[in-house]
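== Polypeptide entry ==
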Amino acid sequence: MPAPALPLIALALLAPAKTSASFYSPTRNISCELADQRGRTPYAFCQSVAHAHSATLGADGHTKICRGSRCLGNPGEHTPVLRYGKQIRVGRFRCRSEQNGITCNVTATGDAFLIDRTTVLVL
């Protein structure tokens, strides 16, 4: 007789938590990276190449905004697209892709930023 299947909740508890992720917006103008790894500073970082600017959200809820080409990095090869209406969560951070930009927040506090092709708003 086969072993009973584990309920989906049990499988989710057994799956390792995601500690980092990166993605592009559907237009590929915005790219983001989230990291929440033991022993490293946690952050959610997004950048827009159309009008060079970026935002970095720390676990403490503080958003640092940077303007100019010095603020941009290079997304990794094979970085996936996060379609409009979809979200991704890594540790303490969640980012959601919408047609008006990408919103990233600290899930426990709600501290957040919205980045689009021209600006960053601290929410």
